[in-house]
Amino acid sequence: MYDIKALYEAESISHGISLLKEHPQAQIIAGGSDVLVQMREGKRAGAELISIYGLDELRGVKLEEDGTIRIGSLTSFSHITKDPVIQKYINVLGEAVDMVGGPQIRNIGTIGGNTCNGVTSADSASTLFAWDAVIEVTGPEGVRRLPIHEFYIKAGKVDLRSAELQTGILIPKESYEGYFGHYIKYAMRGAMDIATLGCSVNVKLSEDKRYLKDVRIAYGVAGPIPMRAVHAEAAAKGLEINSDTIEKVGDIVLEDVTPRDSWRASKAFREHIARVLCKRALKQSILLAGGVIHE
Question: Which of 74, 83, 90, 134 sits at 20 to 30 Å (Cα–Cα) from 46?
């Protein structure tokens, strides 16, 4: 069923990098929820695999001294959803990854694998875009940290250079302090389905809770890679919180989203739900932040 040429097991991050240098065509495998499916379909026949699943140093969530939230790349979706640091500061990420597949997938699938796939439909990706996440990669030349929007290059391709591993995902304190967010996934089925469109919004309100101090709006499946609705974000800043503002911001996202026709949904339908989901997620984020939406 699985045509595997060789399987190597990394004993440490440095050992994993050495294995990648020795076997440059090898595929990294962690939980295997994507790679093994592809192999079963014959897409990676005869592949060499390097397993990093045993590297416990890449698991877990912690709050660093400067307030940065560090998520190890091998942290499972289930772990993220239940983690107290995630629940306290960026609970929306736990809610987003809890929509990935079924319980078995969430127990084995990792956030590093989800982001390294480079697919626009990854449930974690749009929320990480909304939180201005930073991706940490480690390779022969040392550690690189880059904004997540630079990590995604094109559909299915991310900025992992020769013999590099993704080792962590970082959310800086300034990216989450005072912000509240909500994620909505639209799929044809209620569960275990790839998103037709995903929208993640977070907001920071003024001290009197009357104005939008900052808004971040991110999408999955609204373009070839996850993306931010930058024109809508800019238009939202400083606006008074009311129903008209929510309608206005939701309509402006069409200046940014570039969905396509596919067998899952037409471009026109995705544009429609992009507006609807933004308005719903923005409204919920405002309420979570303690705001009141006036007519």
Answer: 74
